[in-house]
Amino acid sequence: MAKDPLAEAGLHFDELNKLRVLEPEVGQKTTELKEECKDFVDKIGQFQKIVGGLIELVDELANAAETEKMKAIGARNLLKSVAKQREAQQQQLHALIAEKTMQLERYRIEYEALSKVEAEQNEFIDQFILQK
């Protein structure tokens, strides 16, 4: 009977016979909820660590991909410049060949002219020797 007036006043005794304001069931559920909340907070912390690691890994992979992309762009530009250099060198060599061909033709014409002059001079010398 002593419990009824205390219970009506909202006071209860727990298993250690301590006076409590909450009912034992409510206190137990509160404790269970507190433990579940702690577990939930711990799991959220673990989840944040995992997600943080994943984000770091993705950032590293993105940086590595960007680096490789830049290397590929550099290599492509280098190949383009090498191709342009080869084309320019080829044009220079064609121009040099044309120049040397023209020079060869001039030398051939000059040789023919000198050979003609030599033949004329030899003929003149032969005629001069025969006249004496």
TrEMBL record:
It is found in: Cell projection, Cilium. It comes from the Eukaryota. InterPro entries: FT20. One of its GO terms (biological process) is protein localization to cilium. GO terms for cellular component: centrosome; ciliary basal body; ciliary base; cytoplasm; intraciliary transport particle; neuron projection; non-motile cilium. The keyword ATP-binding does not apply. Residues 79-117 form a coiled coil. Keywords: Cell projection, Coiled coil. Its main location: other. This is Intraflagellar transport 20. It comes from Coregonus suidteri.
